[in-house]
Write a structure and sequence with these properties.
By secondary structure, this protein is mostly beta strands. It has helices spanning 41-44, 129-132; strands at 12-17, 25-29, 32-40, 50-53, 70-71, 113-114, 121-122, 133-136.
């Protein structure tokens, strides 16, 4: 992905995530450690590649994101498309519902929650991209 010296700085968008991937850079944001990652505009709009949920086959839609900006949350975790995206990383039961968490904003999906079933404190909505998406060319 190209990064420029004038706005927009890149052909895509930056986002912060609590989960490292092979291209993410460790940073500190508001006194919390996280990782700076990016998604290119072609993937955001499904032009060259489409990211499709492995469970429900819904394509990820990043067209609502602003090119050249930075989001302070994981843009892939922010809008779960199916119940499989809302499961505990430990026991694999849903963490949302009557007894579970109820994220109210996009950024809350990147926060750590305690699972109502196994009581594991984790970023349950943030999952490795290879685990949740198929890449279609």
């Amino acid at each position: 992905m190209t990064i420029y010296d004038k706005y927009p700085l890149l052909d895509g968008t930056f986002y912060l995530t609590p989960l490292a991937n092979e291209l993410a850079v460790p940073v500190t944001y508001k006194a919390r450690p996280c990782f700076l990652a990016a998604v290119c505009m072609f993937c955001m709009n499904g032009v060259v590649r489409t990211l499709q949920c492995r469970t429900c086959q819904t394509p990820w839609n990043g067209s609502v994101l602003v090119i050249g900006s930075m989001y302070a949350y994981d843009v892939f975790a922010a809008a779960p498309c199916c119940p499989a995206r809302s499961t505990c990383n430990q026991c694999e039961l849903e963490v949302v519902g009557r007894n579970g968490v109820q994220p109210q904003t996009y950024s809350e999906y990147s926060r750590s929650f305690v699972c109502p079933h196994c009581h594991t404190d984790d970023h349950h909505f943030v999952k490795p991209l290879a685990q949740i998406y198929n890449v279609l060319l």
